[in-house]
Amino acid sequence: TQLLEQSPQFLSIQEGENLTVYCNSSSVFSSLQWYRQEPGEGPVLLVTVVTGGEVKKLKRLTFQFGDARKDSSLHITAAQTGDTGLYLCAGTNTGFQKLVFGTGTRLLVSP
Amino acid sequence: DSGVTQTPKHLITATGQRVTLRCSPRSGDLSVYWYQQSLDQGLQFLIQYYNGEERAKGNILERFSAQQFPDLHSELNLSSLELGDSALYFCASRGTGSGANVLTFGAGSRLTVL
Q1: What confidence tens digit (pLDDT) does each residue in A36-66 have?
Q2: Which residues sit opposite A75 in a β-bridge?
Q3: Residue A105: what are its φ and ψ, rounded to 5°?
Q4: Which of A75, B13, B78, B112 has the fewest C-beta atoms under 10 angstroms from its C-beta?
């Protein structure tokens, strides 16, 4: 069974602070995705990374895929209250037949 | 609106009962995935269908079953319900071509078993 462990589980910070969320596995994935989920809604895709060592930036969010394609990180610069939510990493192998989700990181950004 | 429709949004039932959750994928999407999300947990993959055929199975209990119909909508059947089955059940559909690596989720069906 492929497992994706995220850390930290919970993160409570003030607006303007920086943070990093980690996603680790002992398995290799062909691609890794990050989702954000808000209460009462389904997860929404933020980014997909497919190449070991790849770095993608979306405004204040920076995503990195580990060289060995077993881990990933999400860094948020100058967090805003709108960043509050549950962040989920998810890995898949070729064929995208099974997207395995991580344990989740719940982020609370206070004004 | 993500384009993936799930019904019902909320469902309260008793132990031992059977329920059916319904999912309509985005127009044109052939793949449907079902996930279970219990309180404070991540999403557990249950099962995937592609154009009516089962393609992958995850940690789906024998009491649970699913199918995808010719019109591509899918149903997840949960029987002999237990308290521990209380959870959010999400359906997601996957696109084709440039959207082949994107899962679009519905808003979920919240099941409460009393």
Answers
A1: 999 888 999 999 999 999 999 999 999 999 9
A2: A20, A62
A3: -125, 120
A4: B112
**E strand segments, A5-84:** 5-7, 10-14, 19-24, 31-37, 44-49, 55-58, 61-65, 71-76
Residue B2 has pLDDT above 90, yes or no: no
| Residues facing A12 on adjacent strands | A108
Nearest residue of B to residue A91, measured between CA atoms: B101
- Bridge partners (DSSP) of residue A101 are A90
- The C-alpha atoms of residue A22 and residue B64 are separated, in whole angstroms, by 33
Cβ distance of A88 and B107 shorter than 8 Å? no
| Burial class of residue A99, CB neighbours in 10 A (0-12, 13-18, 19+) | buried
CA distances from B36 to A72, A97, B43, B73 (A): 23, 17, 6, 18
Give contacts of A44 with chain B, Cβ < 8 Å: 2, 105
Shortest CA gap A5–chain B (Å): 10
| Residue B67, token pair as written in the block | 């199918």
CA dist B21 and B107 (Å) reads 12
